[in-house]
Design a protein that fits this description.
Blueprint: H1 19-28, E1 34-37, H2 38-47, E2 51-67, H3 72-87, H4 90-100, E3 115-121, E4 132-134, E5 137-139, H5 141-153, E6 155-158, H6 167-172, E7 178-184, H7 187-190, E8 194-195, E9 200-209, H8 210-214
Parallel strand pairs: 3-6, 3-7
Antiparallel strand pairs: 1-9, 2-7, 2-8, 2-9, 4-5
Length: about 220
């Protein structure tokens, strides 16, 4: 995601490879606050009461599935699939379960496709509601989205787990067919990948330890 202005010219901006590393930095005092999507932070805060939001959303970012620039057929197929699940109520049901109700289990899904495997890059500790590994099984909104797309395309989905920063290069190098990790649509990235229609818009907020907020 693009980095927002902090409003504090002397602030030091730290970047972490995973959400868990970022939150650990806040809890250990290495960072005063963190900026991330409302959805993943809210999921963490359901079971941990040591953090709180700081103010209103800093910015809103549409996210999409990324494809190789030249792979227009697969991109078109995904957009048709997205249009279909939006029109038949499946998408709204997914939003309600994962984004509003905080689901932590996968629903009954259509049978996996039998065609050529589709390789979708992910970050397994991205966090709910999008992607997480739970009891040795991937779950989340994006996993359900991919499994339904696999059934739509008659293709089984494979999920190589890789660091976020290496996924676009892996896509360009044909190690991936698409990136299923939540990926913000930016003009810079449009030079390297072809984005699908946006499937969600993320609100990004700052969080800090409650005890530090109370002391302000």
């Amino acid at each position: 995601m693009p980095m927002p202005s902090t409003g504090y010219p002397k602030a030091t901006v730290l970047q972490y490879k995973s959400v868990s590393d970022m939150l650990l930095a806040v809890k250990s005092g290495k960072a005063d606050a963190a900026i991330y999507s409302r959805n993943e932070l809210a999921d963490y805060m359901r079971t941990n009461d040591d953090l709180a939001f700081l103010g209103e959303p800093l910015y809103r970012t549409p996210i999409a599935i990324a494809f190789r620039l030249e792979d227009r057929d697969l991109l078109t197929s995904f957009n048709l699939f997205l249009q279909q699940i939006r029109s038949n109520g499946t998408y709204d049901d997914m939003l309600r379960r994962w984004m509003e109700q905080g689901a932590a289990t996968m629903p009954q899904l259509p049978a996996a496709g039998s065609g050529k495997p589709l390789v979708a890059g992910i970050l397994s500790d991205n966090g709910l509601p999008f992607i997480v590994m739970q009891n040795n099984r991937l779950i989340g909104f994006n996993i359900e989205l991919m499994e339904r797309f696999g059934a739509f395309s008659n293709r089984r989905i494979q999920y190589p787990d890789m660091e976020f920063g290496s996924q676009i290069a892996a896509l360009a190098g044909r190690k991936l067919d698409l990136i299923a990790t939540p990926l913000a649509i930016t003009e810079e990235r449009k030079q390297r990948v072809a984005f699908s229609d946006s499937y969600y818009t993320i609100d990004s907020l700052a969080v800090a330890l409650k005890k530090n907020i109370a002391a302000r």
